[in-house]
Amino acid sequence: MEVFNAIGRRKAAVARVYLSEGNGVITINGKDLNTYFPSGILQYVVKQPLNHLSVADKFNIKANLDGGGFTGQAEALRLAIARALVKVDEANKPVLKSEGFLTRDSREVERKKPGRPKARKRFQFSKR
Questions:
Q1: In this predicted structure, what is the pLDDT of residue 37?
Q2: Contact at 8 Å (CB) between 26 and 61?
Q3: Domains of the chain
Q4: CA 26, 29, 32: angle at the middle one, nearest 5?
Q5: CA-CA distance, 110 to 11, in Å (whole number)?
Q6: CA of 47: how far to CAs of 11, 106, 118, 127, in Å?
Q7: Cα(79)–Cα(21) distance, integer angstroms
Q8: Per-block average pLDDT, block size 10, for the chain (128 residues)?
Q9: Pick from 54, 57, 58, 62: which is nearest to 27 by CA?
Q10: Angle, vertex CA 78, rays to CA 73 and CA 84, nearest 5
Q11: What is the pLDDT of residue 128?
């Protein structure tokens, strides 16, 4: 039984995934998926690549998540799972790529500029 590992990133979140044959158990930082992500939407996001290939009950997933917020972590985990599934079988790549699961969302938060309240927001201008 071989273990496939992959990494996924989104915003400030990093997900390291270890995929092995099993019965569909997803463990994140030592907790169950339903405990770590109580939101049904985020659980759906994490399981998207597995459900799309109809292999949700064939693999056990152990994941380490670090940094970012819960949405970024869920999307980083989705990318890592998709990359691991490609390592399992190269035939999965066109299917996952067409759905956009292998594309790294590279949008990051713009830095705050000095003399401004936020990155682009300015204080109210007063002529007199």
A1: 95
A2: yes
A3: 4-99 (3.30.230.10)
A4: 40
A5: 11
A6: 19, 21, 35, 55
A7: 19
A8: 92 96 94 95 95 93 95 96 95 94 94 96 93
A9: 62
A10: 125
A11: 86
